[in-house]
Design a protein that fits this description.
Layout (H helix, E strand, L loop, with lengths): L4 E4 L17 H7 L11 H4 L2 E6 L5 E7 L6 E6 L9 H11 L3 E6 L20 H12 L7 E6 L1 H12 L8 E7 L5 H10 L1 H21 L15 H12 L5 H7 L14 E6 L7 H5 L7 E6 L16 H12 L2
Parallel strand pairs: 4-5, 4-6, 6-7, 7-8, 8-9
Antiparallel strand pairs: 1-9, 2-3, 3-5
Helix pairs in contact: 6-7
């Protein structure tokens, strides 16, 4: 792979991503994505944020925040990663970057994310696609005629690609482009890597176990996770929780249910940008390379960037922040 990026799409070159050598390690890039210092300082997006409750199918309720920009040049809908939220650092920082350029921002929480455990009896599953799609569709209706964009990170990137897949038959008003940053494509390939690295394992175990305990405290008559939470493996919890609290008899059936198959995106009518890194410790680049894309899609695989990283410096916008804003505002 070259020193800039592998990209497949309309033939246009993309801006190189060449961080300084001390900023290149995958773990450094990945860790910085969640560091809270990036949320410090003035943030007009948060100052005008209004809570929104979205009513989805089967009585599901999802909560988000809408920040309408007076310029309303575009509406950008952010989809966070697993155990993230509308307040995840990469969402808040990325949203501020685009809001400051005139875009309105909608930040969605999935079920049981962002302190919303009490809104729905059922637990969050990555297969909860319909409710996320309906929530995004409702959020898009806030655009008031402005072009709509979706930016998804990690599991949010997986949701974004499944939305792209669904556009063969469904429609989101005025949707112009879908961005998937470090997207999960094949859960079977990604999930074991979370357990392999002790840093990733500790991070996700801490967040997921806290979330499950909160769900249990809200609905003690429905859930008892204590026995399974004694394990120290993400996959071990997944394997135990599926047959007890989902319609999936096995972990394999569950993972297969939200995989993005290689041929799924070929007929997507909306442009897609997939951004990932060859050194991502969670998403194998081979999964991204297997995707069959059409002329509307661009696949960008940088040598460096880690997972949701792509930091060009410690203080400035990330590479994908610049890329997303270039695409959105060059298309006005």
């Amino acid at each position: 792979m070259d020193s800039t990026a592998t990209h497949i799409g309309d033939g246009a070159a993309v801006k190189p991503f060449k961080p300084p050598f001390w900023l290149r390690p995958s773990l450094v890039q990945t860790a910085l994505a969640s560091f809270k210092y990036r949320k410090r300082g003035k943030n007009p997006m948060l100052d005008v944020a209004v809570p929104k409750m979205l009513h989805c199918e089967d009585g599901v309720r999802l909560r988000g925040s809408y920040s309408r920009n007076p310029a309303n040049k575009a509406l950008v809908i952010f989809l966070h990663g697993w155990e993230g939220s509308q307040d995840s650092t990469y969402v808040v920082a990325g949203g501020r970057h685009l809001y400051n350029q005139g875009a309105s921002i909608f930040r969605l929480n999935y079920r049981d994310h962002g302190d919303t455990h009490e809104l729905n009896e059922g637990i969050f599953l990555s297969t909860n696609f319909n409710e996320v799609f309906h929530a995004v569709k409702q959020a898009a209706e806030l655009a008031e005629g402005a072009p709509v964009y979706i930016v998804g990170f990690s599991l949010g990137g997986n949701f974004a690609l499944r939305i792209a897949r669904s556009l063969r038959d469904l429609r989101i008003t005025n949707l112009k482009h879908i961005f998937a940053i470090s997207p999960v494509v094949d859960p079977w390939a990604a999930a074991p890597l979370v357990d392999v690295n002790p840093i990733y394992r500790r991070y996700f175990l801490k967040k997921w176990t806290a979330s499950l305990r909160k769900k249990q405290s809200v609905f003690p008559q429905l859930y008892d996770f204590e026995a399974m939470l004694k394990t120290n493996r993400v996959l071990a919890i997944t394997e135990q929780i599926m047959p007890l609290y989902s319609d999936y008899p096995t972990m394999e059936a569950y993972f297969n249910a939200y995989r993005v198959d290689p041929h799924c995106l070929k007929t997507c009518p909306v442009p897609i940008s997939i951004v990932t890194a060859a050194d991502d410790g969670i998403i194998p680049p081979e999964d991204i390379l297997k995707l069959e894309l059409n002329h509307n899609a661009r696949r960008i695989i940088h040598d460096h960037g880690g997972h949701n990283g792509f930091f060009q410096s410690l203080t400035g916008p990330t590479w994908y922040d610049d890329y997303v804003s270039d695409v959105i505002f060059d298309q006005e």
